[in-house]
Design a protein that fits this description.
The structure is a single chain. This protein has helices at about 5-15, 30-35, 40-45, 65-75, 90-105, 120-135, 165-170, 190-205, 280, 285-290, 320, 345-355, 370-380, and strands spanning about 15-20, 25, 55-60, 80-85, 115, 140-145, 180-185, 210-215, 225-230, 240-245, 250-255, 270-275, 300, 310, 325-335, 355-360, 390-400, 400-405. By secondary structure, it is of the alpha/beta class. The chain has a nine-stranded mixed β-sheet. The protein has a seven-stranded mixed β-sheet with strand order 13-14-12-15-18-17-16. Strands 1-2 form a two-stranded antiparallel ribbon. Helix 1 packs across helix 5 (about 90-105), helix 3 packs parallel to helix 4 (about 65-75) and helix 7 (about 165-170) runs parallel beside helix 8 (about 190-205). The relative contact order is 0.08.
Length: about 400
């Protein structure tokens, strides 16, 4: 529990700084680099807000700065127990838990604790905690975010600390047969390593429900990968979460399926959509297609790189549900020659004829060249007078050629 010595240590070793849209916490620069940012932590906690978790504690046996633990305690209004192996970090975590409870006006801090020690020593941790509060409390949720090798693009499961198999085996006797469990993992682990994690969970809890979750904040990449187990799992085996800058969550859940790239049949009037690559990473391209297309024909024409591309004869449906995973979408108004400085006047003329007031380059171009080409294209378009019906457009590659689209 925090005391004046811990508070003085926290202020001298890691002065408190305010989190974006969140509380003020203590963390060294290295801790901040590794910690879950508050907006992400609170967004992930929201996913559990309507989940019927069993009564009891939230346990985080590798809590670090305690940011994610505090977010879960705040949203679920339950006490938490964090364990931290580093004696330099544990006092900061204790102060942070207290600070965030005060900031959130939560009464869960009175029976929340941070322990300094080995997070895999489940029996000792629970005994120490129960002695501290003078009562025995069951576990509602186990959240595990093990430390991983720094600056490693790839690592083995054995390099995670605490080791996942030993950690889960230690805590399993104190959890329900259908436990609520969240395992945070590196988004860079391979499919084979994901299956290893699945096997570890199966070896302890057999066929307990589980959901693999990918989280993206945009920018064409997966920011978080986690496995939600038992009472914390979704009804579907895969889930993709889009966290927008304002904290809103977009969700897509489904069963992974194999998508096939077809021969592009490009016709004026067709609708072209560039989706977020996270759809491909999560295996939910077909789940997205089934929501997005309710009639006509449709094909994936590209499923690799930064711009997976989809074409359909009809405009997309259910935009409120599928829109979070779209980079850009529009109606094809014309095919186009190559994109170069020599063809910019032709592209501008095509755009003007289609009543497009601007034309954004959404194609594969040298990053150093792209802004110069875009500026030159903007200047070409300014030579034309805009009509009252002028709208935004974009150009992208399809196969060996290009198409110009009116943005939806």
């Amino acid at each position: 529990m925090p005391d004046e010595n811990a508070r003085a240590y926290a202020e001298s070793s890691a002065p408190a700084r305010e989190e974006p849209d969140g509380p003020t916490i203590h963390a060294t620069d290295e801790m901040r680099r590794l910690a879950t940012p508050w907006p992400v932590a609170i967004a992930r906690a929201k996913l559990l807000a309507s989940t019927p978790l069993p009564a009891g504690l939230i346990i985080d046996p590798a809590c670090g700065s305690a940011t994610q633990l505090a977010a879960l305690c705040t949203l679920l209004n339950r006490p938490g127990v964090g364990v931290e192996l580093s004696g330099a970090v544990a006092p900061l975590a204790a102060i942070n838990l207290e600070r965030i409870a005060t900031w959130a006006s939560g009464d869960w801090a009175e029976t929340s604790r941070i322990l300094w020690g080995d997070g895999a020593a489940a029996e000792s941790i629970l005994q120490t905690y129960h002695q501290s509060i003078g009562a025995t409390t069951p576990i509602a949720l186990l959240h595990v975010d093990p430390a991983r090798p720094q600056n490693a693009q790839q690592h083995t499961l054995e390099e995670m600390q605490p080791r996942l198999d030993l950690l889960l085996a230690s805590w399993a006797p104190f959890m329900a047969k259908n436990p609520a469990l969240i395992l945070d993992l590196s988004p860079r682990i391979s499919d084979a390593q994901r299956m290893e994690v699945d096997d570890i969970v199966s070896s302890i809890w057999n066929d307990v429900p589980r959901t693999w979750q990918w989280m993206t904040q945009g920018r064409g990449r997966i920011d978080r990968l986690s496995l939600w187990v038992g009472a914390a799992a979704d009804s579907k085996p895969h889930r993709l979460v889009r966290l927008s800058p304002n904290g809103e969550l977009g969700l897509l859940a489904g069963t992974p399926g194999n998508s096939v790239v077809g021969e592009p049949n490009i016709e004026v009037g067709n609708h072209l959509t560039i989706v977020d690559p996270s759809l491909v990473a999560s295996g939910l391209t077909e789940s997205w297609r089934n929501l997005a297309v309710k009639g006509g024909s449709s094909d994936w024409i590209k499923l690799t790189g930064r711009r997976p591309t989809f074409i359909s004869s009809e405009a997309l449906s259910n935009i409120n549900e599928v829109g979070d995973f779209i980079q850009i979408s529009g109606e094809i108004v014309e095919t186009a020659p190559e994109v170069s400085f020599e063809t910019l006047s032709i592209l501008a003329a095509i755009a003007h004829a289609a009543d497009l007031s601007n034309l954004k380059l959404r194609c594969r171009i040298d990053p150093d060249l792209q802004p110069k080409l875009q500026s030159a294209l903007d200047r070409e378009l300014k030579q034309f007078e805009s009509t009252s019906a002028a709208t935004q457009g974009f150009i992208t590659e399809v196969g060996e050629g290009y198409v110009i689209c009116r943005q939806a």
